[in-house]
Amino acid sequence: MTRTGLLTLLFAYGLLGQEGTIFYSKNFPKSKPEYMEILLESTGDAIYKESAEDDQPVKFKLLPEEVKAVWELAAKVNWFQRKLESGLPVARMGEKSYRYTNGPVKNEISFNYTQDLDAQALQDWFEKMVETVNLYFDLERTAKFERLGVDRALLHLEAAWDKKRLLCFELYYPLLNRIIKNDSYLNMARDRAARMKAMFEEARKKAE
Fold first, then answer.
1. Domain spans in the chain, listed from the N-terminal domain onward
2. What pTM, to 2 d.p., does this model score?
């Protein structure tokens, strides 16, 4: 069977896009981090790394409606089978790479800048995942080494939540619980952590 015939068969049986994985990476020298990658399963399970050999990856899970939005956008860009690079003489913005894998299907593409609106929307979803993990790193590091700065880190987290830039918020539960229960942190930080956990739990209930 030809590749085209296989894809047609997969579409016919409703298999393509409902399973498999989407891999995303960004390589941007002199940025922080210079490299990162996310492997997202259709179940919502995801792994974030800052190198291919990263032995301390961050694992998180997207909500079903978030996964649905990502998969629908991937379908709109034809599962990364068509060109996304704009070809415009723009500054280097980091090489973005996508790979969709589903059984025998494996599509890959890389680009610096695209004008495709669906690709831009998909990029925004992955950028939100990256922002979520980076805020997690910041709160974790601050809670461990700079306890007086925890309320500031929580303010940044709250601002991202208000701007709808925060995903997979259950990632934060262990950190928030640690802050709430530890009286070595400022009361304002503990109170803010408790409020944020309550907001997350309410959002989770609405999503179920």
1. 3-207
2. 0.86
